UniProtKB/TrEMBL annotation:
It is a multi-pass membrane protein. This is Capsular polysaccharide biosynthesis protein. Residues 72-156 form the Polysaccharide export protein N-terminal domain. One of its GO terms (cellular component) is pore complex. It comes from Pseudomonas saudiphocaensis. GO terms for biological process: monoatomic ion transport. GO terms for molecular function: polysaccharide transmembrane transporter activity; porin activity. Keywords: Cell outer membrane, Ion transport, Lipoprotein, Membrane, Palmitate, Polysaccharide transport, Porin, Signal, Sugar transport, Transmembrane, Transmembrane beta strand, Transport. Signal peptide: none annotated. InterPro entries: Poly_export, Poly_export_N, SLBB_dom, Wza_C.
Length: 362
């Protein structure tokens, strides 16, 4: 039976050399730059300096920049549920009717839901929509009918009428009151404390007056950042998404295949390969570094496969300039000898079984 086994083994080797190569791989020699597959569903592109000029993303949110920074906070306007402390100098019975020993809140004046408040002698006063100075002047004018030259001061004890809302990947999100001190985006997210491990920093959404503005918090790390110039107003909503559905997958002949959470807008191919421990020098094909990018609608546009020839160390300069996108797959293919060795390692156990059977039949 030995001749029969040898014949079978030789036949398998011949077949392997012709048609069989185990594992996932693409043949870089089949690449024609910009060519599409036979059915048009995949486009193959080489990563070159010329190609990179079209792949570098433009700054996000710049179209809305001027519109957002043009907004300047106005003087605070009193609203329902604000708690005011009204002082009339030399008249403690008006300033603190509950007694000076009481807490300030006990002597505060709450603006009712209809926007009014009650004050001794003058009765109901329309407070909502007025600035602190406007309300102070109104109370002083009306008190002048009962008190000679009243000296009136108005302060806010508690803010309850205006708020902004922070949701998503914040440790202490929720409602943040709008106060007499203007607050910008940077201050608001600083108070809310970002969950840096799980936040998608590149996709902060500001919802204002029925519109949505997409902003990139990673811009704060850049010297030309303008986010600190964007002030918030009553009714604004800030939503910071989680990055659990936004990943990059690094597979193939790398030292540590993994899925990377995509947190910022500036993650490149070099970052991904480095995070995966680098290319496995002993098994990888330097010409077979690919970025596989699906299409939003595969029925109308092709998916793209970008190839980097990494045999030369200078190729990693290109990798550093190649921006990745969420759901990209970085795949490093095996060298031909690697595929052959893996085939042999898979074949030998079967050969041992055949050999054992042949010996048994002698």
């Amino acid at each position: 039976m030995k001749p029969l086994f040898a014949l079978a083994f030789s036949s398998v080797l011949v077949l392997q050399g012709c048609v069989f190569s185990p594992g996932q791989h693409l043949d870089p020699d089949e690449f024609k730059d910009g060519a599409k597959s036979e059915n048009g569903s995949v486009q193959l592109l080489r990563i070159t300096p010329e190609m990179l000029t079209g792949e570098v993303p433009s700054d996000r949110g710049t179209s809305s920049k001027q519109e957002l920074i043009d907004y300047k906070p106005e003087a605070y306007r009193i609203g329902a549920n604000d708690l005011l402390y009204i002082t009339v100098w030399d008249h403690p019975e008006l300033t603190a009717p509950s007694g000076p020993q009481q807490q300030l809140d006990a002597n505060g004046r709450l603006v009712r839901p209809d926007g009014t408040l009650f004050y001794p002698y003058i009765g109901n006063v329309n407070a909502a929509g007025r600035t602190i100075e406007e309300l102070r002047a109104e109370i002083a004018r009306r008190l002048a009918n009962y008190i000679d030259s009243p000296q009136v001061d108005v302060n806010l004890l508690r803010y309850g009428s205006q708020r902004i809302v922070l949701s998503g990947a914040f440790n202490t999100g929720g409602e943040v009151p709008v106060t007499t001190a203007p607050i910008n985006i940077v201050q608001a997210i600083g108070q809310a404390n970002i969950d840096t491990e799980n936040a998608d920093l590149s996709s902060l959404v500001l919802k204002r007056d029925g519109r949505e503005y997409l902003l990139d918090l990673d811009d704060l790390n850049r010297p030309d950042s303008w986010l600190h110039q964007v002030y918030l107003k009553d009714g604004d909503q800030l939503h910071l998404p989680y990055n659990d559905q936004k990943k990059i997958y690094v597979l193939g002949e790398v030292n540590e295949p993994l899925a990377l959470s995509f947190k910022t807008s500036s993650y490149n191919l070099m970052d991904a390969i480095g995070t995966a421990g680098g290319i496995r020098q002993e098994t990888a094909d330097g010409e077979a570094v690919y970025v596989i990018r699906g299409a939003a609608n595969i029925a109308t546009e092709p998916a793209k496969v970008f190839q980097l020839n990494a045999k030369s160390p200078t190729a990693f300069a290109l990798a550093k300039s190649f921006p990745l996108q969420p759901q990209d797959v970085v795949f490093v293919g095996p060298a031909g000898i690697t595929r052959w060795n893996r085939f042999i390692s898979q074949l030998l156990p079967s050969a041992a079984v055949v050999g054992t059977g042949a010996a048994f039949n002698r």
